[in-house]
Amino acid sequence: MKYRVELPYPSVAEIQRNPEIAKLIMHAYAGEVSEDTAIHQYLFQSVILQEKNPEVSKILEQISEVEMRHFRLLAEMIRNLGVYPIYLDPNFHTYNYFTSRYVSYEVDFKCLLKADIEAEQNAILNYESLIAVISDEAVCNVLRRIILDETLHLEIFEKLYASCS
To answer: Which of 163, 39, 54 is nearest to 110 (CA)?
Structure first.
């Protein structure tokens, strides 16, 4: 099974300084619906399911590794845009540091898959919203590429959910 789309990620090397765009990206980096949250949530679930459902545990671990790649890309992009990639969400004129309260700690199999489906749907919506307001094409290309993986993750979680109904 594949956990990422077989296309290269665009380079972030040519992205130029723009702190305002960096602040927008930080929400997807370390906000409530973010790569940071996804990594923590999927790793938690992977450990919880390790004995009960080792196959799904491995799927969650593999998806979390793809989310780590996204997390790294966003960090490098934020840095190139001129801001330190700290674990902060500077949206709505507040500065909320990443917190593990963002993570769903659901342990019921069907409920945790539902939470994962919702997380991926929200991530896709967040990335699409960013693309709609960001004029830097290099930044948008990275976000579009990440959406491809998130869409694949959504499909995987939906199939798993359907199989347990």
So the answer is: 163
First to last CA, the chain: 21
- Whose CA is closest to 42, among 92, 117, 98? 117
* Dist. CA 115–CA 111, nearest whole Å: 6
d(CA 81, CA 124): 22
Single out the residue of 116, 106, 125 nearest to residue 160, CA to CA: 116
- Nearest Cα residue to 60 out of 104, 29, 122, 9: 104
In tens, the pLDDT along 80-125 reads 999 999 998 887 667 788 999 999 999 999 999 999 999 999 999 9
Contact predicate 151/127, CB 8 Å: no
| pTM for this predicted structure | 0.95
Rounded to an integer, what distance in angstroms lies between the CA atom of residue 154 and that of residue 87?
25
For residue 162, how many C-alpha atoms fall within 13 Å in the half-sphere facing its CB? Answer: 6
Query: pLDDT tens, 21-60?
Result: 999 999 999 999 999 999 999 999 999 999 999 999 999 9
137-142: long-range pairs with CB below 8 Å, 24+: 138/10, 138/12, 138/14, 138/15, 139/15, 139/21, 139/25, 139/77, 139/81, 141/10, 142/9, 142/10, 142/12, 142/15, 142/73, 142/77
